[in-house]
Amino acid sequence: MTKLIGFNKIKTAIFISGTGSNCRNLIKFSKLKNSPISVHLILSNNPKAKGLVFANKFKIKKKIFKFKKQRKDEKEILKYLEKNQISLICLAGFMKILSKNFIKEFKGKILNVHPSLLPKYKGLNTHMRAINSKEKFSGCTIHFVNSNLDSGKIIVQKKVKINKNDTPKVLAKRILKQEHILYPKAIIKLFANL
Ligand code: GRF
Question: Residue 74: enclosing H or E segment and its boundaries?
Fold first, then answer.
């Protein structure tokens, strides 16, 4: 990790739609001296996303694109990212599906956190589905984003035990804690040797 000192950090944008606990965690991580990233932008499709408060709190630019006209918005987002020299996107609870074209433009530079042990339980309601299927374990995954939903190359995963009386809410909380540890780990794994 010491190798990073003196290097420019990777300019990163975080895309959110809701609470933003992963966003907050990544911002905190980015402030560590040896973190490979610096967070320059929080982007949301939801003007009411709670996580937007972290833009004010940490003095980071924020931008809202409602995705009502996805093609148009994505074009503008790409322009905006270029203007701000963003070279990494971390999706963190971002509930819109980016188009093939957008992903192509940012190929290999979009990461996502997903609350299951992919390739199991892609999509929504992962905790409920894992519990209903009587899985013994679930967990979380950090992966590259490609044009198929939750299907890009896996970077790191963490298994989390499902307890007998777990509700989706209880399990989600336990897994979220692990997401907060796992996302920085993935970034270190990918970029610490630059
Ligand atoms: C996380 O569980 C993430 O895996 C999923 O949505 C949730 C977002 O939580 N995609 P937060 O907004 O980061 O608190």
Answer: helix 70-83
What digits encode the pLDDT tens for the residues 37-51?
Answer: 999 999 999 999 999
Position 158, amino acid: K
Pocket test for ligand 1, best of 14, 16, 22 (most atoms within 8 A of CB): 22
Index of the ligand 1 atom closest to the CA of residue 24: 13
1 inside domain: no
Distance 183 CA to ligand 1 centre (A): 11
CATH code, domain with 181: 3.40.50.170
Instruction: Please state whether 128 falls in left (phi above 0), alpha (psi between -120 and 50) or beta.
Output: alpha
Q: Is 24 in the pocket of ligand 1 (CB under 6 A)?
A: no
Number of structural domains (the chain) is 1
Look up the domain containing 59 and give its range.
10-191
Global pTM value: 0.95
Is there an atom of ligand 1 within 6 Å of 171 CB? no
pLDDT in tens, 148-185: 999 999 999 999 999 999 999 999 999 999 999 999 99
In a domain, 5, yes or no: no
Does 130 map to a domain? Answer: yes
